[in-house]
Amino acid sequence: AIAARAERQAVWGGTDDEAKAAALEREFEASMQAVMAAAIALDAFYAILRPHVALPPTLVERWRAERTARFSQVTEVIRRAFRLQPKGTGALRANLREIYRVRDLAVHPSGKIEAPMYHPELNVGVEWRFAYFRASNAELIVNGATWILWDLCHGGKPPDAKVLEYIGNLKRRLVTLFPNGHPSASTAVPPP
After folding, report:
1. Less Cβ crowding at N or C end of the chain, within 10 Å?
2. Is 183:135 a contact under the CB 8 Å cutoff?
3. Quick check: 189 pLDDT over 80?
4. Beta strands in 65-180 (DSSP E)
C-alpha cells in the first residue's frame, strides 16, 4: 500500500487521467488487502485463545441469538484470556471496533451509489472506497492490530499455560518484525 501510494503520488501531478485512475485503484487494492490481513490476524489470535477461555454457554447463546458484533466477541475472549482491567479492555474494544468496522466495509460494501467523499491527500472528491482504503488508513489499521498483539505478548499475563506458551512464541516472531520495538499506536481509528 505504501509503494502504491508513492506511485499514486508520482502520477497525480501529471495529466494522464488513466494513469491516475490506475494508481488510485492499486492503492485501494493494496490497502484493502492490508486491512483484511490485519483483521484476519486478529481472528486467528481469537481462534487460538477461544478454546482456552471458559465462556458461559448462556453468553455464547446470547451472542448467537443477538448476532453480537465480531469485535465484541473478540474483545471478550481476549479480556478473559489475559484478565484485562477495564481501562485496557476499553482501549482494546475501541481499536477492535474500528479495525472490524473498516474490515466490514471491504467484506460487506454498500451497493448504493453515494456522493463522492473528500480524499484529504488529493483534495478532491472520490468514490468512498478510495477515501477509506488508502495507504495512510491501512497503516493505522495494521499498526493498531500489530500493537494489540505486541502489547499482549509483552505485557500480558495469561493464566493458561498453553496461551502463555503461544504468546511466548508469538512474541519472538513479533520481535523479528519489529526489532526496535513496535511503533507507538494509541488507536486504530482512521479518518474517513
Report:
1. C
2. no
3. no
4. 117-119, 124-126
Q: What contacts 98, CB < 8 A, 6 or more positions away?
A: 141, 144, 187, 188, 189, 190
d(CA 138, CA 35): 6
Alpha helices in 50-85 (DSSP H): 57-66, 70-82
By C-alpha distance, which of 62, 49, 147 is closest to 96? 147
Please say whether the beta carbons of 75 and 14 come within 8 A. no
Buried b (16+ CB within 10 A) or exposed e, 92-110: bbbbbbbbbbbbebbeeee
- Rounded Cα–Cα distance for residues 167 and 149 (Å): 9
The structure's pTM equals 0.88
Residues 126-149 have pLDDT tens digits of: 999 999 999 999 999 999 999 999
